[in-house]
Amino acid sequence: MTDAIPPFLQQLLDRGIDPLGDARAREWLLAHPEALPSFAALREALAAVAHAPVAGKPVAGKPVAGKPAPVAVDPVTNASRTSGPLLAAAGLIAAALLVASGLVFWSTNTATTKRDATDVAPLPRPNLPTAGRVIDHRVASSRLAGSTSERHVVTRLGLAGVQTHHATRAYESGPHDRPDAPTDHAITIRGVTKTIAHVLE
Amino acid sequence: MPDPMTEDRAAPDARIQGLLTAMERPLRAFLRRLAPTEIDDLHQETLARAWRSRHTFDPTLGSGRSWLLRIGFRAFLDARDRRSQPTDELPDHLAASTADPATWAAARDDAAVLLQRLPPQEREILLRFHRDGESIAGIAVELRIPAGTVKSHLHRARNRLWAAQRNGEDR
Questions:
Q1: Strand-pair partners of A144
Q2: Which of these, A48, A43, A6, A41, lies nearest to A27 by C-alpha position?
Q3: What domains can you pick out in chain B, each with its CATH number?
């Protein structure tokens, strides 16, 4: 019965809601204590995933699970294997054109991107594992300006104290507003993180 | 000649004592995952509650393990609710509290191992959603796959994390 996560718990997680803040989820867990170890472990794993570094930025010299590298397809060698040297040359030209167009795009310094400009740095997040009061956490927008990338983040927190404190220190936070809070005890922090030369912290 | 009343009381007491002893490690592992900074307090509270309510334990209604985990979970929820005070400012002693670095590092390493076991697409979608804060719709657009497919991958990845714990839940 608890071999898989119940659909309503999945839906809560899809909406970025901590199941511990949901009355129905709490009741379900209390009624299914055999699922409690799996739930606790899942919650811990997701908290760790939230802090997982991206590829190329290992922690303490250990191999880490970051963003999976895209499947490597070398346009030259791949073409050479399959279609001969003519296609290889065409691939080389196409790759050169791609690089050139990318340089032109970058040099405008006005590109507003969703992720590409800031992929190399993990988004600082509140200390989720301490009490798990993060209700929602989203990147609202990212903007590249020269060597500085700027991300607008929105974090909705339960007022568990520790998380709130860490969040306000982690971000150049804007005013706390409560009107759209989904629970009685929540705030929304709108903040900006700036990454100089793509190196955070 | 033994007093039957004393014997009746002693039998469940011994059973609960045995249960608390046998369950110490998995109970602490469970509580550590829920609240690493409060494990000792929660463990003590769980043992105290279990002992106080030992006469309510009925093995015909469920295992001792489930009974004890439920008590521990209630203790955790109560402590969590007590912490949720409606204020934006923190007392200094709370602000100084942080997760134990060693515990947090172990959790992160475990998560890294689990992530590596996921199929690549599930791993990427899980990271985009839970680490990068992307929406399901946004991931679907970027990966050029239907949002329903993104959700399916995400749910499967979470189910794998959920199921993976059975092998090492007593960490």
A1: A149
A2: A6
A3: 4-84 (1.10.1740.10), 92-166 (1.10.10.10)
Beta bridge partners of A190: A154
pLDDT tens for the 201 residues of chain A, in order: 578 999 999 999 999 898 998 999 999 999 999 999 999 999 988 988 887 766 544 333 333 333 333 333 333 333 333 344 444 555 555 555 555 554 444 444 433 333 333 333 444 444 433 334 555 666 666 666 655 555 656 555 544 333 333 333 333 333 333 334 333 344 455 555 444 333 333
Note the pTM of the prediction, 2 decimals: 0.56
**Quick count: other Cβ atoms within 10 Å of Cβ A67?**
20
d(CA A44, CA B68): 20
Q: Give yes or no for a contact between A5 and A42, defined as CB atoms under 8 angstroms apart.
A: yes
Q: How far is B75 from chain A (nearest CA, A)?
A: 12
Surface of A (22-81) touching B: CB under 8 A? 26, 29-30, 33-34, 36-52, 59-60, 62-68
Q: CA separation (Å) from B51 to A69, B14, B16? A: 52, 11, 7
Continuous segment of H or E residues that includes residue A87: helix A75-107
- Amino acid, res. B92: D
